[in-house]
Amino acid sequence: MSSARFTSPRRVSVAPMMDWTDRHCRAFHRFVSRHTWLYTEMVTTGALIHGDVARHLAFTPEEAPVALQLGGSEPDDLARAARLGEQWGYDEINLNCGCPSERVQRGAFGACLMNEPQLVADCVKAMRDVVSVPVTVKHRIGVDAVEEYGFVRDFVGTVAQAGCNVFIVHARNAILKGLSPKENREIPPLKYDYAYRLKRDFPQLEIVINGGIKTLDEVAMHLEHVDGVMLGREAYHNPYVLADVDARFYGSTAAAPSRAEVEAKLIEYCAAELARGTYLGAITRHVLGLYRGVAGARGWRRVLSDSRKLAAGDLAILDEARQYLREDAEMFE
């Protein structure tokens, strides 16, 4: 029986992924699913305080709901960045306490923050004091050789006292030395039971599980124990997995969009973006998996990866790519 006490808007979400979940990726995912909760790439507080705010935060209203993930460890800086996020229309501010990259470690944030739960609590409080949208935390279950469940339990307990009600649990340890970010997503063993235990120990909190989840049947299984499930690389490489999310997990009665319908919306989006001066390849790089598993998908990907053709900015490239697909003819009638 599910331990969830309510239906979370984060029942299914797509993880924040550096270099991937930019505004074009999110717009594309929104063509596939209306309700899946989406996240930005991590944006550092320094990039917002000292950089081009519009470049980092601008997005189209059609992408909503969208959460802004922040990277930082200074409460005042995070408060300023969170306030900007709310002003730009984001539905949630998420603090990254899970990234293990060396660059993030040099900035003293990401996964190493799990070793300083009181600092994280201070950061959460500083953000909650200046915004009205939810402030959430994404974290690992342990750092380096720390394997005890009590570590993540105490971390969540401390941060929850600052008013954080939503914890996104990447159910692996973060190995700060010796493993690359990619290896950190694959080598440390998954311990889903740690996330389940957090929900049992903190039934009043919203617990979302993340890590290695690939199918909607797996999503349904996890939802028997926690409030939400976050998909990562599967949603990026196989985006059509999101097509049945709305009906299956949000009660939508609308028919799932066909791949052809998704592509039609994509073409409209590309036309609008080309008129704004966007490089076509900045969009098509995110859609290469739309026809994954369909005969001819390799040809589709090859055409849409041709830098020479993409530079021409001609949408006829999509017609050419489609010639390689051997799906049922009625899809394109």
Automatic annotation (TrEMBL):
Q: Which cofactor does it need?
A: FMN
What is this enzyme's EC? 1.3.1.91
Write down the position(s) of the site called Interacts with tRNA.
N96, K182, R185, R298, R301
- Record's keyword terms, sorted: Flavoprotein, FMN, NADP, Oxidoreductase, RNA-binding, tRNA processing, tRNA-binding
Q: What class of enzyme is it?
A: oxidoreductase
Which sites are catalytic?
C99
Name of this protein: tRNA-dihydrouridine(20/20a) synthase
Organism whose genome encodes this protein = Paraburkholderia kururiensis
